[in-house]
Amino acid sequence: MQLVSTIGEWRAFCDAARLANKRVGLVPTMGALHEGHASLMRQAREVCDVVVATIFVNPRQFNQASDLALYPRTPEADEALARNNGVDLLVTPTVDEMWPAFPAPVATTVSVAGVSDQFEGAGRPGHFDGVASVVAKLFNVTGPCAAFFGEKDFQQVAVLRQMVSDLAFDVEIVACPIVREENGLALSSRNVRLSPEGRAQALALNASLQAASAEVASASTLRYRMRKVLETAGVEVVYAEIVDPQTLVPVGDHESGQKRALVCAMVEGVRLLDNGPVVVEGDK
Ligand code: AMP
């Protein structure tokens, strides 16, 4: 595995790989790597010839300074995890390399309207502008590739698919399944901020998804079941919604078919996300 931190070295590596007819796989992360990130690296390894992983805690996507300051950083363990999961190039750019103007405003922002507006976009103003802007830059430096993202951040995948389609990036977005602990808790770098009690409470997110998918019903019945599980566990619900999996528009009670349940809750001050497939049957 090679380690680089400049845009020049990173671009040269990817250009050389394509020149040798190799398919490039990109795994963008913010570090504090866990088995969820490792699964993306392994999926990239399976279908690509070279795997490029990036670790960059992008300050532009944090709307709260405290969240950025508290974001876990484990560079040595990250390097070992990347090495053990088939990464060929690990890119760890500094903020100065990625956004030389920062903390002054960066002149260019990529903003994806519509699919960004609700849920994480509403709760974290500017978050998806920061995500779309940094991922656009990662795609521009990496060049044509397959890029692997986790369904854990379901809305993020929808935002990035829209961006790729609107701006004609030569990038195939590959959405990978959520990796969970045995008890059902979705792995997240933020879980390290939870106490043992908090981790137990956080199980309510997955439990709410299980309740929603247990029996087919109308969207509002599923929403009600999710909220009940979350409220019984005593977590602060930010949203619990049934949405169209492409547009993320909330599903009406007359609609039927395969949809997505999205849940967000605060546990011990940590914003936790989860989601899963559901089937709804509209009221006649
Ligand atoms: P992050 O470092 O949190 O920005 O995440 C980097 C990538 O890993 C994103 O595409 C996430 O969706 C993905 N990811 C994070 N947690 C998981 C998980 N539990 N299962 C699958 N993918 C994940």
Give me the secondary-structure topology.
Elements: E1 2-4, H1 7-19, E2 24-29, H2 35-47, E3 50-55, H3 65-70, H4 75-84, E4 89-91, H5 95-98, H6 120-123, H7 127-142, E5 145-150, H8 154-167, E6 171-176, H9 196-214, H10 219-233, E7 236-243, E8 257-267, E9 270-280
Parallel strand pairs: 1-4, 2-3, 2-5, 3-4, 5-6
Antiparallel strand pairs: 7-8, 8-9
Adenosine monophosphate (AMP) binds at residues 29-30, 36-37, 39-40, 149-150, 152-153, 176, 178-179, 186-189.
Mean of residue pLDDT? Answer: 97
Largest β-sheet summary: 6 strands, parallel
Query: How many angstroms separate the termini?
Result: 58 Å
Structural class: alpha/beta
- Spans with pLDDT under 50 lasting ≥5 residues? none
Which descriptor suits the 3D outline?
globular
Order of helices and strands: EHEHEHHEHHHEHEHHEEE
Please, what is the oligomeric state? single chain
Q: How many DSSP helices?
A: 10
What is the tally of beta strands? 9
Strand content: 15-25%
- Report the radius of gyration as a whole number of Å: 19 Å
Percent helix range = 40-55%
- Strands of the widest sheet, in order across it, are 1-4-3-2-5-6
Distinct ligands: adenosine monophosphate
